[in-house]
Design brief:
- The protein is an alpha/beta fold.
- It has 2 domains: about 210 residues, 3-Layer(aba) Sandwich (Rossmann fold); about 160 residues, P-loop containing nucleotide triphosphate hydrolases (Rossmann fold, 3-Layer(aba) Sandwich).
- About 40% of the residues lie in helices and about 15% in strands.
- A 7-stranded parallel β-sheet has the order 3-4-2-5-6-1-7, with helices on both faces. Strands 10-11-9-12-13-8-14 form a 7-stranded parallel β-sheet, sandwiched between helices.
- The radius of gyration is 22 Å and the shape is globular.
- The structure holds adenosine monophosphate (AMP).
- The site of adenosine monophosphate (AMP) has 16 residues, from helix 3.
Length: about 375
């Protein structure tokens, strides 16, 4: 079914053409008409399924027709687990919102930066994307009100619960008006998510998008067997030799992330690290540069890489393996998105061999292992 059949207005349909969204993804075909009809949604879907646009587009349309609210009273609230996701979701609101005749102000708020500029900027905002802690601080300072909220979105609800936001979320729920529309998205339906679902949702439309196994089929996987001391040179060899222009490299620690990025730069490959020890500004900046192609390599730890949304990510390299097979699938799943198949490469040292076997077994797929011993890495 094309976008034009989902009930979206002409302005949004035009914006979709500009964004080169040709066909709705399954979650969008199912969620958009239901949200426009005022239904609650329970969406079980991963990052990469197109869930953001599935709620952003109908919310933008609904806010157009809504009665104007008092200043600092929100029409829609999107709760997210991380600052990066807050910024990305708000970008989607901005990109599509800019094409509408009635301008809607949206904003992302998150902790780790000073609160005052956010308080000032909240003037006139109707759609808010927020991490739970900062949202509560802003409410306490009377910088915003949720008493007239019409739509609540929980994005990546499972991650919010994993990251320990349960208490804050419960507090936020207690501040909301009784009648409202609720949209809940989660990659998994854990017991905790199910509890929230039962607490919040009224007769929801349930949409389940099975993604991980499908995307894995799209991804070309390779592994290189390498000695510990040749791992750095091999990484640089692969990037240079294959002319890779946009590579997400994973390490298992902050320390390694910095080290790998430093070494890449010394070898004239533009790279930056993104991890929890970097300031918010530095992280946003690195992500922007990576997205726009100003740097070739982003070196990330697992937590930081969650929710990084990049339209076309051709290469993921596991410089170090993650501990859990689930994280491995999550990492490599970033390359098999949309219609663009990508490549995931893992660098396996002797001590990782056993662990890599376990990962492959869990994934249900065996990865071709190439011995890198014969590669001439001199000069890399
Ligand atoms: P999400 O799951 O919301 O993080 O979206 C994953 C990626 O798919 C984002 O880069 C979107 O811009 C892109 N995307 C979402 N819907 C579509 C669509 N219908 N056609 C093409 N790209 C899309």
């Amino acid at each position: 079914m094309p976008f034009s059949k989902l009930g979206l207005n002409a302005h949004l349909l035009h914006a979709l053409v500009l964004q080169k969204y040709e066909q709705p993804y399954p979650i969008q075909s199912q969620a958009i008409p239901a949200i426009l009809n005022g239904k609650d949604i329970l969406g079980i879907a991963q990052t990469g399924s197109g869930k953001t646009a599935a709620y952003v587009l109908p919310i933008l349309q609904l806010v157009q027709n809504a009665v104007a609210l008092k200043n600092r009273h929100m029409f829609a609230l999107v709760l997210v687990p991380t600052r990066e996701l807050a910024i990305q979701v708000n970008e989607v609101f901005t990109v599509f919102g800019n094409t509408l005749p009635v301008k809607t102000k949206s904003m992302a708020v998150y902790g780790g930066v000073s609160i005052n500029p956010q308080m000032i900027k909240l003037q006139g905002v109707e759609i808010l994307v927020a991490t739970p802690g900062r949202l509560l601080e802003l409410i306490d300072s009377k910088a915003l009100y949720l008493t007239d909220l019409k739509i609540l979105v929980l994005d990546e609800a499972d991650k919010m619960l994993n990251l320990g936001f349960k208490e804050e979320m419960t507090k936020i729920f207690s501040l909301l008006p009784y009648i409202r529309q609720n949209l809940l998205f989660s990659a998994t339906l854990s017991d905790d998510v199910n509890n929230i679902n039962q607490l919040l949702l009224r007769d929801p439309v349930i949409i389940k998008i099975e993604e991980e196994t499908n995307t894995i089929d799209l991804i070309k996987q390779r592994a290189y067997f390498v000695s510990e001391e040749r791992r750095g040179p091999l990484l640089r060899y692969l990037i240079k030799h294959n002319g890779m222009q946009q590579v997400l490299v994973f390490t298992s620690s902050v320390f390694q992330a910095d080290l790998v990025a430093d070494k890449l730069r010394i070898n004239s490959i533009k790279a930056e690290a993104i991890h929890s020890k970097k300031s918010m500004g530095a992280r946003t900046d690195a992500l922007k540069k990576f997205k726009s192609g100003k740097i070739r390599v982003l070196v990330a730890t697992d937590l930081m890489a969650r929710g990084i949304d990049i339209k076309f990510l051709p290469y993921v390299i596991n410089y170090e393996l993650p501990r859990s097979p689930k994280d491995y699938i999550h990492r490599i799943g970033r390359t098999g998105r949309a219609e663009s198949p990508g490549e995931a490469i893992s660098l396996i040292c002797p001590e990782d061999q056993h662990h890599f076997k376990i990962i492959q077994k869990k994934m249900g797929e065996w990865v071709t292992m190439i011995d890198s011993a014969d590669l001439d890495l001199h000069g890399y």
